Amino acid sequence: MRARDCKIVATMGPASDPPERLAMLIQAGVDCFRLNFSHGSKDDHARRMASIRAAEAHAGAAVGVFADLQGPKIRVGSFEGGEIKLKFNETVTLEASTETGQQGLIRLPHAELVDALEEGDILKLDDGKMQLTIIERGRTQVKARVDFGGVLKNQKGVNVPTRRIPISALTDKDREDLAYALDLGVDYIALSFVQHPEDVHEAKALIKDRAGVIAKIEKPSALQQIEAIVEAADAVMVARGDLGVELPPEQVPIAQRKIIRTARAAGKPVIVATHMLESMVEAATPTRAEASDVATAVYQGADAVMLSAESAVGRHPQSAVAIMDRIIRAVEDDEEYWASLPRDMTPPQDTTADAIALSARHIADVIGCKTIVAYTATGSSAIRVARERPRCGVIGLTPFIETARKLALVWGVRSMVTDDVHNVEEMVEKADAAVRKLGVAEVGDRVAIIAGIPFGRAGKTNTIRVLRLE
């Protein structure tokens, strides 16, 4: 069967915990798993990580794992009786306090939020079910008009799409979770509620190259600095949950397309997430709209699509993965996909390695190579080739299992761990053995190989070799 290019990410949870279920998910097509640190204990995450690595060893293929930090989720406080009623067009007061709120008074345990609010700002409550508009700014309080009413219960979330809130993307809980996730050996850290590139730099200073950083784009303020955020991060996620709350619905598809294009141009993997096959939490098959949603992300060139509740708590996790795999393959079998897929993304002023990667894709197109083999220590060479979206796919050969796992998130890349090479003859021999083992080429087929000479030095990709299998 032809290798699938767009990758599948599955969120771990009770539905995917049993070892036999985990093995079936990998067999069905999961390339990378998400550990959601908004839920579950540290023991849960440690157990899941151990299960993933055991299943990976049994499958004989590198599987990526990323820890998704909860981030600074802003919430209202508690209320007398557990809830209040918000009525259309009434005026309510917002106050920074940890004390209990009451009818007409919403207390927020986030003084920085109340301090930042100005007249005209919009607040969305409980995932957008209710909405307030600030109408008056006081010294310690603000007054707001209820635009959409409802019942507001304790600890419901608050979104402020009109204002950049001066809150770090890393809470004290996140810092503790981050250190724990790194000790578990995750391959990426997903950073929630990124607002500007400094959030990514702050996380990277703590991680110190022990894992990559995935910047989750879920706030309008992040879209205003998307190029700088993508440049700072190792990968990005179109996190459509909160993004869909903070943006008008009609703007979310436009934002998704912009984020994917920006990540593609920068050569950074991009994941599309949230509500992809949501109905499969209960149903055995997705809706037609959900199938179209997954297909759209693939047509746009996303590196990966992600399952959330479908695989974490859903009734049919394996079926959800299998159906997502079928949708991706159907798109990738469509000639219109290849005709419309943006390619030649490398800017002309980039490095020799970028030029080599672009040239390898052109060579593969012209002479019909069955695959492109990229020797890579850090993964950058394989990622550069993947940015060009070669129709023949990429094999990343690396001496490090950590690099192979990171490449599990990258479009079109199948990675293998192999000893480092020391000369051209050995380079050719190992590439020949790899493509035969993976079944992507046979006698008479041609394969393009890229590597760096002298061997064993990272970041020195400067050579292309065309191999015809004898």
UniProtKB/TrEMBL annotation:
Q: Which cofactor does it need?
A: K(+)
Q: In which pathway does it act?
A: Carbohydrate degradation; glycolysis; pyruvate from D-glyceraldehyde 3-phosphate: step 5/5
Question: What does the record give as EC number?
Answer: 2.7.1.40
The Pyruvate kinase barrel domain is annotated at: 4-321
UniProt keywords, alphabetically: ATP-binding, Glycolysis, Kinase, Magnesium, Metal-binding, Nucleotide-binding, Pyruvate, Transferase
Could you tell me what reaction this enzyme catalyses? pyruvate + ATP = phosphoenolpyruvate + ADP + H(+)
Instruction: Give any GO molecular function from the UniProt entry.
Output: pyruvate kinase activity
The record's section on Pfam families has: PK (PF00224), PK_C (PF02887)
* Listed InterPro entries: Pyr_Knase, Pyrv/PenolPyrv_kinase-like_dom, Pyrv_kinase-like_dom_sf, Pyrv_Knase-like_insert_dom_sf, Pyrv_Knase_AS, Pyrv_Knase_brl, Pyrv_Knase_C, Pyrv_Knase_C_sf
The Pyruvate kinase C-terminal domain is annotated at 354-467
> Family, per the entry?
Belongs to the pyruvate kinase family.
Q: What is this protein called?
A: Pyruvate kinase
The species is Terricaulis silvestris
